[in-house]
Amino acid sequence: MLEMPARPRGVELIRTEGLTKHFRLGGFLSRRYLHGVDDINLSIHEDEIVALVGESGSGKSTIARLIARVYTPTAGEIFHRGRTLSSIRSHRDVLEYRGDVPMVFQDPYGSLSPVYRVSHGITRALKLHRPDLSRQGREDEAARLLEAVGLTPALDFLGKFPYQLSGGQRQRIGFAQALACRPELILADEPVSMLDVSVRIGVLNLMATLRRRERISFLYITHDIASARYVADRLLVMYAGQVAESGPVEDVLAHPKHPYTQLLLSAVPDPRAPISLPATGEVQEPPRVIDPGEGCRFRSRCPYAIEECGRVTPKLRLLRPAHEAACHVATSDLEVPRVDEGATVR
Ligand code: SF4
Questions:
Q1: Distance (Å, rounded) from C-alpha 225 to C-alpha 299?
Q2: Residue identifier of the C-alpha nearest atom 7 of ligand 1
Q3: Index of the ligand 1 atom closest to the CA of residue 328
Q4: Which CATH class is domain 10-102+185-190+219-266+287-331?
Q5: Residues 272-328: pLDDT tens digits?
Q6: Closest residue (by CA) to atom 8 of ligand 1?
């Protein structure tokens, strides 16, 4: 793991309050809704990496797309440096916001046009977000950005087409395009999930370097809790569109309070451990959250569910300093036993 000294938090860049996104299922008159995310409250500060961790369909990417203004919230609000996103309307202001908070996508193969050279995407972003630069200035800056993301010699890469690059190199191009906007926060949507394991660590190190050298914050979206531990300061564990647990990474991993976080941790493979099948049969598809009603959404998989879990939705409660979990049975006094210690899933 990278050595991360404790950092005082800087200015708050993004805050969400009660952020909710529902998707209508069926035709215009349908009253069935898929709950993408419900009541999300998070903040991201200057010089900070916040990780959103959870299974596919847990709502992580929906949050990133809401912050990127790809989706419009069903309810709740997003604040950028204290200003509501819904008040940003003019083309100029939207462009400026998208430059401050760009997105890097999961698929390094689909996110670059196969017909343009590397230089095209970067200089296009520079034209949009740095109109002060001359043509020569854009070319110089494009080369500098490629060097900043570890692609050297930069002039060689500027002339290449995407098919001439590996997955890791393409993902670095994605980061260079984001840097062209001079961002303060990058929304990194599973940037390493489609890369070979041996290449992932290089991209994670790149994020840590950009944070350290350029003071860029990240919202890092991943299903891999181990990689979140590697780079992030804070962690939000998502389940079925809600935050199950949040707090400083090391504290959440050392003292996981929510049974779902414990399940995620127990599923992290240890290459040195003997091979065995999971003891609790917990390998299930995550639920599609359609009109869920009240109650804990994890209850069908939870070995500790009590009667209250079926009728009352648990709220996030502070259980340790800066560490919250949404669970009726987890308390600061009670360490919920790990699920791999013989409990039976109901
Ligand atoms: Fe399990 Fe109940 Fe806690 Fe949900 S609220 S995680 S069902 S014990």
A1: 21
A2: 299
A3: 5
A4: alpha beta
A5: 666 555 554 454 556 668 878 899 999 999 999 999 999 999 999 999 999 999 999
A6: 305
